[in-house]
Amino acid sequence: MGWSSFAAVGYDGRLVTIEVDIRRGIPGMEIVGLPGSAVREARERVRIAVRNSGFLFPRDRILVNLSPADLPKSGSAYDLPIALAVLEAAGQVPSDGRERFALGELLLSGEVRPVPGIISAAAAGIAARIGDFLVPRQNLREARALEAGRICGVSSLGEAVRIVDSFISGAPIPDALPPEENRPPSGEGFDDIRGLGFLKRALEVAVAGRHHVLLFGPPGGGKTMAASRIPSVQPPLTREEALEVTRIHSLAGILPPDSGLLRERPFRIPHHSASLEGVIGGGRNLSPGEISLAHCGTLFLDEAPEFRRNILQ
Asked: Of 17, 141, 204, 306, whose CA is between 20 and 30 Å from 96?
């Protein structure tokens, strides 16, 4: 057993197992398993972060395998699990044979930075019956939204090693998490609009019944002003909807740090010059588009005739 991480592929993603072999030879570290450029650069980040955290980086030949080997890996979230796996293989981190999960980007100082897709990663680990998770502290509230597993936030590599020691020894683990602030609803309401009673009533009916709406008329008639106030009459997300929306926004990398579940329904306004991938989604890493980001909310196509024909179709 050892350390696992996560590869974001579509909505669900897949778990990635980190294997490390240390043998005698010319000092150096090689990463295999279809790593992207950011993953290959982890060799230098991990080496310096380990030394700056007070540990000894092995002066041997190190091979890191990211399994499954046929799945492309991208991003900097593999830094923390690779560092922990190397230290474990070198005997500087204790091991009890249990599989554990880690995700986070390392700075050269050993500090751990937040990464996208934490809630999807935690869900995949919980589905695989992994019980212990190490995530960046700024992603802790997001990961704990699932209310399952033993999830700890770390701010540095040294803190991660200390928590692993506590996992194995059974010592109590500091679990300080400040209460979530109740943020007032954002945006303006229909009460700011004078007149246009029929338009406001039509938008309220559309929101209540989840209908599509086409607004047309002369410029300056108040179409955009009224449509931009739709969030003020939308109900809050249910827990199931909040999990889905938060997961999509986390995969897209637009979830604010220290954020838990999103409570307000999304309201997306893509520009008419947006690309097909930007609106529909997809691309090399199957990133969510504006349609996915508007899930359980509203997608507002302002100046709709200006959008490219293939997008409208």
From this structure: 141
Contact 21, 32 (CB under 8 A): no
Q: Residue 40: which of 28, 58, 24 has the closest Cα?
A: 28
CB 185 within 8 A of CB 152: no
User: What does R_g of the chain's alpha carbons equal in angstroms?
Assistant: 23
DSSP 8-state class, residue 236: P
pLDDT score recorded for residue 99: 92
In this structure, the strands spanning 298-299 and 267-268 are parallel
Kindly give, in sequence order, each residue whose CB lies less than 8 Å from that of residue 53, ignoring residues fewer than 6 positions away: 110, 156, 157, 158, 161
pTM of the model: 0.87
Task: Find the largest Cα–Cα distance for the chain.
Answer: 80
Whether 120 contacts 103, CB under 8 Å: no
Among 91, 58, 62, 68, smallest CA distance to 18 is for 68
Predicted pLDDT at 257: 79
pLDDT at 169: 87
151 to 119, 139, 241: CA distances (angstroms)? 11, 10, 22
One-letter amino acid at 128 equals A
What torsion do the CA atoms of 234, 240, 241, 243 make, to the nearest 10 degrees?
130
Single out the residue of 302, 298, 291 nearest to residue 208, CA to CA. Answer: 298
Residue 176: per-residue pLDDT: 60
Q: Which residues are CB-contacts of 115 (< 8 A; sequence separation ≥ 6)?
A: 75, 76, 77, 103, 104, 105, 136, 139
> Across the 313 residues of the chain, what is the mean pLDDT of every consecutive 10-residue run?
86 91 94 95 96 96 96 94 96 90 97 94 93 93 90 95 92 68 65 84 92 91 89 92 94 87 93 92 83 95 92 89
- CB count in 10 Å sphere of residue 141: 19
CA–chain centroid gap for 3, Å, is 19
Q: What was the pLDDT predicted at 109?
A: 97
Task: Count CB neighbours of 166 within 10 A.
Answer: 14
Which residue(s) pair with 142 in the sheet?
none
Task: Determine if the peptide bond prior to 256 is cis (ω within 30°).
Answer: no
